[in-house]
Amino acid sequence: MAGTPTFATPPGFLGITRQDPGAGFCIAGVPLDIGTTNRAGTRDGPAAIRRASRMLVDGVHPQHWTDPRNLDIADIGDFAIALGDIPASLALIEQQAAACAHIISLGGEHLVTLPLLRALARRGGGPVGLLHMDAHVDTWETNFGQSLAHGSVFFHAINEGLVDPKRMIQVGIRSPVDRETWDWTLAQGVTVVTAQEAHEATPAALAARVRGVLGAAPCYLSFDIDALDPAFAPGTGTPEVGGLATWQAQGLLRRLDGLAWAGMDLVEVSPAHDQAEITALAGATMAWEYLALLAKG
């Protein structure tokens, strides 16, 4: 056991105290919440994930034998946003993210992925491959009557050339979707793995499929916490039954070392609907698994 109790761990992710945006890997909170669901929002998601990450600092996991805190890593705090102004908020997020070499973002709702991908492209990193873990395709042209919303983020990312749809794979999809959006997504070349397909495969088989799509070129991970079943992640705005278990998501991520990861976001943690911090802890753990891949590599 660690000599310092977890409640005494510093407030940065994994207790990280360094705040230098010039670090090789930067953790940043992006508390964007534009209110496009009928449930309480995600603006406190970054803080909740950081608090829950205290549970992960007691040693290392034998699956990895690596400690992400040994990376050239900093927690640079939360990005500034323009409250109530979506385009201005996206521009601010992009500007701040572009100054960082490698972002691990704690959201905030899923729209934060769009400016993060724009920043990556600005640094010469796009179009990238994409592993998108989610209950929803998020390729609607509009969502809740808005063009810029958490359900349209990858419609824009594909159309802006930020991701290569032929190197894009979605895992955990199970929400209702109109046929036009579904057909458009497949027509772009996106690979969709439904939650049912994921349940019927082993994590090793699923990882092999992901690797086959992403290839050797730079790729990005966007992890919506509602990829997990509400039994494992109740604290989210749009829960969908039949999702992945936490062990399945971990089993997949742990087998994706050696890929050319260029960034990650963990989104849609909504603490107002959480129970005993299990959603925040799941989110913190998925970010920890990603960092472990980087440390292992």
From TrEMBL:
What Gene3D superfamilies does the database record attribute to this sequence?
Answer: Ureohydrolase domain
What keywords were assigned to this record?
Answer: Hydrolase, Manganese, Metal-binding
Cofactor(s) for this protein? Mn(2+)
> CDD domains, alphabetically?
Agmatinase_PAH
Q: Which GO terms describe its molecular function?
A: agmatinase activity; metal ion binding
Instruction: Give the cofactor note text.
Output: Binds 2 manganese ions per subunit.
Per the UniProt record, which EC number(s) apply here? 3.5.3.11
Which InterPro entries would you find in this protein's record?
Agmatinase-rel, Ureohydrolase, Ureohydrolase_dom_sf, Ureohydrolase_Mn_BS
What is a biological process (GO) this protein takes part in? putrescine biosynthetic process from arginine, via agmatine
- Binding, Mn(2+): 110, 134, 136, 138, 224, 226
The superkingdom of the source organism is Bacteria
One short Pfam family name for this protein? Arginase
Family of this protein: Belongs to the arginase family. Agmatinase subfamily.
Protein's name in the database: Agmatinase
**Species name for this entry?**
Dankookia rubra
